[in-house]
Structure formats: structure tokens, C-alpha cells
Amino acid sequence: MIPPKKVLLPFFLKVLIVTAQQQVDLPSRTELEKRLVENNVPALGVGTIENGEITNAFVIGKLKENTIAPNDAIFDTASITKSVTTLLTLRLADSGVFNLDEPLHQYWVDPDVADDPFHKRLTARHILGHRSGFKNWRYMNEENTLAFDFEPGTKVQYSGEGFEYLKEALTRKFDRSFSDLVHQEVFHPYQMDNSHVVWNSAIDLTKLAIAHNSELEPYDFDITERKTASAADNFMTTVNDLCLFGKAILEKKGLSDAVYREMVTAKSPVKDGVAFGLGWIVFENLGDGDYALLNAGSDTGVNAILLLLPKSQTGLVLLTNGDNGRKLVMQLIGDTLTVGPEILSRF
Q1: CA separation (Å) from 104 to 36, 129, 161, 229, 259?
Q2: Which of 106, 153, 197, 267 is the most buried (most CB within 10 A)?
Q3: Which residues contact 168 (CB under 8 A, 6 or more apart)?
Q4: Lateral strand order in the sheet of 53-64
Q5: What range defines the domain where residue 34 resides?
Q6: Residues of the chain with pLDDT under 70
Q7: What local confidence, expressed as pLDDT, does residue 21 receive?
Q8: Is residue 108 part of a domain?
Q9: Residue of 82, 147, 156 lying closest to 111 (CA atoms)
């Protein structure tokens, strides 16, 4: 409840679904360390949830040259941010202070689309389902301005700009910063004490997993300049915090059954067996008819996934700080989960 007063397309192309007998067969640390070397990836964070309980949350490798990564290393997770924004929005809707279907123009209108009548039809539901009508980022338009490619709700098109639009509407409606809203509605109730959407002095820079290129060279990046929160990108967290987030989703913590069903129901088809729900990619009809929820992030020097299998209460978290991390993450999806090969075949 609210008290009174970059960029690459995310490699979301990865999602999974399981059966109630889903098994997690994590490679040994020795094997994981070998794969880090083989793939030229500095560090790997690994988290697993089995039968609804966190069974692993550790990090191997290096934050940067000559700096061993601690288990509470802080990783950028790129587009996994969108699942945080989704949970924030759905909790507000569940509490009755926000309506997913109310037009957002009463709170915010981006000047770029003020003369387009489509802006009066845009809702949070459109945005969470990637049906806003916006490209991923406005720089993809010729004039580097925001524009509707189609009427909201009529087609599917992945968009970070949509989530940024939603952020602006929420912060104005509730007269709170986005960071404050996320901390109050997500990080605090889910005990995610080491998670942040914007730079602040609580972040321990000595634990930051520096982004690296494919040759293991660090990118020049100053996290202290990240002073504007994004609703679509740059969520910073630890393996354990992201496992806590995933566990809470599996438990439907803080969401009614009705809202949870809306979140996980495939509504916006991407390809056979793969569709967007609200804020998640849903893989349907795996194994015994189970399904998987997935969000993934890919930016320069960042590759990460959060995969949840609700029926078997299974989860997999993989965080990396290298451009080659995507290949490693894909390998581990296939090797760690019983249905991994089936999932990979859908990509």
C-alpha cells in the first residue's frame, strides 16, 4: 500500500517450463569454474530453488582482475528490472490504489506523443504485456523521439520505452520517486536488502561485478553516475536477493490469486509455445502441461536470467558480468534442468 503522503534487445529469448518432477542437476563448482575459463566470463552467480526453498546462492570467478567475487557480489541484471516493475505495478493494483486498465494520460503524457490520439488509450496492462505500440527504445526512430508504431493493445512489440512511460505515470500518480516505490512495495516486503534501482551510498562498490567484454577486458563504467532510476533496465542485486524475489513469486507472496493468474497467463504470442503474460515470458505446455516464467537481461557486459517453474516450485538464477555470459547461461539451462533441452529447442 502507498502511505499518504542502452542498449541491446534483452535476450529474453530464454524461458522454461517444467513438470512437477522437475529436477535441478547443478554442475560441480569445479565444472562451473572450467566453463568460466572456456567462455571467457569473469564471474558467474548461481541460485537454485527446489520445492520452494533456496538451495544454492553463490558466486564463482572474479569481479575484476585480481578480485575474487564474494557470494554477495552485486550484479547488474539489465531487463530483469521489468519483472520488478511488474510486481510493483501488480501489488498497487491488488491493493486497490491503481487500475491496470485506466488510461495513463491522466497522470503522464510524453511530449513526443501528445498530438497522437493513441496516447489516450495507453494503459499499464498494454505496457506490461508488451503491447504499448512503442519500439524498444526511442533512439530506434529516425528522429530519436517516442512514437506509436500501432494502436496500443493491437499487436505485440517488446518495449523498454513502455516501462519507462509507466514509471513516469506511477511516480506522478503517487507523488513518490520510482526508487521509493520499489523499495516500499518490493524490496522491503521481500527482504531484498541488497537490491537497488539507482545509485546510493548503501551500495558497496568493492562488491560490484564489473562488466567485461569477450576478451575479459573491463568496460569503463562509473556506477555512481547512475542517479536516475529505470523501470526497464539496470536493476542491481545479489544472487540471494534475486532468489528471494523468485521464491516470493513462486509463493504468490503479496499477490491475490486473481492477479497472479493474470500475470502468468500467456496473452501476447511471440512464437509457438512462447508468449508474454504480464511482465514475464511464459512458456506453455511443457512436459505434463506445466509452464515456465522467464525474464532475462542482456546489456553490454551483462547477461542474466531468472527462470521460474511454478508447478514444481523450481527456480534458476544465473548472473554474469561478461559479454560471453549468454552462451554460458544457455549451456547451463540445458544442463541443469530436466526440461532444459526442450526449452532450448524453442529459442
Answers
A1: 45, 15, 14, 19, 19
A2: 197
A3: 107, 108, 110
A4: 67-68, 53-64, 43-50, 314-320, 302-309, 290-299, 281-286, 274-276, 268-271
A5: 29-344
A6: 1-22, 288
A7: 57
A8: yes
A9: 147
Backbone angles phi and psi of 226, in degrees to 5: -85, 80
Q: How many domains in the chain?
A: 1
Structure confidence by residue, pLDDT tens digits, 145-193: 999 999 999 999 999 999 999 999 999 999 999 999 999 999 999 999 9
Pairwise CA distance, residues 292 & 141, whole Å: 33
Grid coordinates standing for 98? 491503481
**Which pTM was predicted?**
0.92
Q: For residue 171, is it within any domain?
A: yes
CA dihedral defined by 115, 121, 122, 123, rounded to 10 degrees? 150
What are φ and ψ of residue 271, in 5° steps? -160, 180
Residue 16 covered by a domain: no
Instruction: Give domain status of residue 1, yes or no.
Output: no
CA distance 136 to 282: 19
What is the CATH classification number for the domain harbouring 168?
3.40.710.10
